[in-house]
Structures are given as C-alpha cells and as structure tokens.
Design a protein that fits this description.
The strands form 2 sheets. The protein has a two-stranded antiparallel sheet with strand order 1-3. Strands 2-4 form a two-stranded parallel sheet. It is built from 5 helices and 4 strands. By secondary structure, the chain is mainly alpha-helical. Helix 3 packs across helix 4.
C-alpha cells in the first residue's frame, strides 16, 4: 500500500497507471531465434528430447515442464504426424484394370467365377505418432 502512495506522490495518477512488473525473463528467450531455426529442421519427438537438445545447443538445463512452456510460447505444439499416400503409378493401374474388366464382365454373366483374396494384408504405411512442431507434418507412406 505504501508503494502506491509513494508512486502517487512522485508522479500522480499517471505514475499509478504505468505497468512496471518485474517479471523474470527466461534465459532461453535469448536463444529463441536459433532454437526455432533448429527445431523447424529437427522437430523433437518428446519433451525430454527437446530438453536434451536445448541443453546441448545452449548449455541451459531445464525441466521438461519448463521446456514445454517454452516450446508452446514459440508456437510449437505436440501434433500428430499425418500420412500422405505415395504417388501411385496410374499407367500400371490402368493396364491392370483393362486386363481385369473382361474377366469381371464374364463373372457378371455367369461364365466365370472371380475371387478376391486377401489372405495376408501387409501394411505398407508408416506407423506414425506425435512430434513437437510448429505446424502439422505429413510423411509420404506406401499405398497400403
């Protein structure tokens, strides 16, 4: 209370309107630009991985919770990696369809029996997880 009275005596109501918080600035703020450049190229998988990289690059050791807060303040988030099917060879698919079409017509008329068998379905796509990144990342995967 006495601080407000002293401020009022020194500068009146305008002195009271000034925002003078002495909030502690993180040491990581000094390295934010270089860390942002690094993490855009090498997104960390986990907070522990990010904390280790920050310690390696800056020499500043911080807890995972502190690192999480810092990454979020930079605009990063823990985001799911999305799959993008790799380009299919349209010419090969078209050739296969041309060979298959007459057989399907014969099956419709009862002259042939056609079976589609998938005894073992192998997944060609990647099993994707989460990364700490600025925007959602997409990875080319197989067509499976």
């Amino acid at each position: 209370m006495l601080g407000y009275l002293r401020d009022y005596k020194e500068g009146g109501i305008n002195k009271l309107k000034e925002l003078t918080s002495n909030r502690h600035q993180s040491e990581l703020k000094k390295h934010q630009e270089s860390l942002e450049i690094y993490f855009r190229e090498h997104p960390p998988k986990t907070l522990a991985h990010a904390a280790a990289k920050i310690a390696e690059l800056t020499g500043i050791l911080r807890s995972r919770e502190h690192v999480r807060h810092f990454l979020k303040s930079m605009g990063m988030g823990c985001r799911r990696v999305g799959p993008i099917p790799a380009k299919a060879d349209l010419a090969v698919q078209e050739e296969f369809l041309k060979k298959l079409q007459p057989r399907l017509e014969e099956a419709k008329s009862g002259q042939r029996t056609v079976f589609f068998v998938d005894a073992a379905h192998f997944v060609l796509g990647a099993y994707l997880g989460f990364l700490w990144c600025f925007e959602r990342l997409f990875v080319k995967t197989g067509a499976g």
